[in-house]
Amino acid sequence: MITKLQLQNKLLELAKKGAANGNLGTSLAEYLTFVKNNYNDLDSEAKVMAEKAIDIATEGAGEAIGAMPDGILLSKATQSLH
Q1: CB of 25 within 8 A of CB of 32?
Q2: Fewest C-beta atoms under 10 Å: which of 14, 18, 31, 66?
Q3: pTM for this predicted structure
Q4: Banded pLDDT at 39 (limits 50, 70, 90)
Q5: Which residues pair with 42 in a beta bridge?
Q6: Which helix (H) or strand (E) holds 81?
Q7: Taken in order 18, 41, 56, 65, is the CA torsion positive or negative?
Q8: Using CB atoms within 10 A of its CB, is residue 3 exposed (0-12), middle (13-18) or buried (19+)?
Q9: What is the pLDDT of residues 55-65, one digit of tens each?
Q10: Cα 78-51-64 angle, rounded to 5 deg
Q11: Pick from 80, 72, 2: nearest CA to 38
Q12: Where exactly are the structural domains of the chain?
């Protein structure tokens, strides 16, 4: 089982990596992919943490898409959510 502490350490590791290379977005994507790929191995506390991260990312994506003007980028963004 992956514990909450281990998941926190993974997030910290990826955040430091993203800060060092100037690409926090990629690190966030890596973290969410890690969560998705390992969800069944998370203990109950780690699952709560993972679900909160997914909620925050989903909310942020929705806000970003809502602020986009009509056009090709908006179309591509909404298609990627389906």
Answers
A1: no
A2: 66
A3: 0.73
A4: very high
A5: 2
A6: none
A7: positive
A8: middle
A9: 888 775 555 55
A10: 30
A11: 2
A12: 4-80
The structure tokens listed for 27 are 């690190």
- Phi first, then psi, for residue 26 (nearest 5°) are -65, -40
Phi, psi of 68 (to 5 degrees): -75, 140
38 is written with which tokens? Answer: 């390992």
Tokens of 20: 């060092």
User: What string of H, E and C letters represents the secondary structure of 1-61?
Assistant: CECHHHHHHHHHHHHHHHHHHCCHHHHHHHHHHHHHHHHHHECHHHHHHHHHHHHHHHHHH
Give me the pLDDT at residue 66, please: 59
Structure tokens at 73: 């980028």
